[in-house]
Amino acid sequence: MTKISKDMGIMEIVTSHPETLEVFAKFGMGCIGCAAARFENLEAGAKVHGIDVDEMVNAMNEVIEKNQA
């Protein structure tokens, strides 16, 4: 299983693991269609939104693991 990390690109994450969209929504990061999502990594995007990136990464990896079970 590929683990999500905070240095991965936002669009890279969504493209590889569309199930993470629910995590982006849960954390209030609805900027997937935003131009910045094309070049920002997860850590930068989370910082702009005041989100704890480590908590978000953990939640994404849990969703991916659950969907692969």
Q: Distance N terminus to C terminus?
A: 11 Å
User: What is the domain tally?
Assistant: 1
How many strands?
0
Structural class: mainly alpha
CATH C-level class is: Mainly Alpha
- Which spans of ≥5 residues are poorly predicted at pLDDT below 50? none
Q: What is the CATH superfamily classification?
A: SP0561-like
The sequence of SSEs as H and E is: HHHH
Describe the global form: globular
Radius of gyration: 11 Å
Number of helices: 4
What helical percentage do the residues reach? 40-55%
Give the gist of this structure.
The protein has 69 residues and is mostly helical. 52% of the residues lie in helices and 0% in strands.
Question: Describe it for me?
Answer:
By secondary structure, the protein is an all-alpha fold. The chain contains four helices and no strands. The protein is globular, with a radius of gyration of 11 Å.
Features:
69 residues; mainly alpha; SP0561-like; 4 helices; 52% helix
What layout of secondary structure does this protein have?
Elements (H helix, E strand, L loop, with lengths): L9 H7 L4 H6 L15 H7 L4 H16 L1
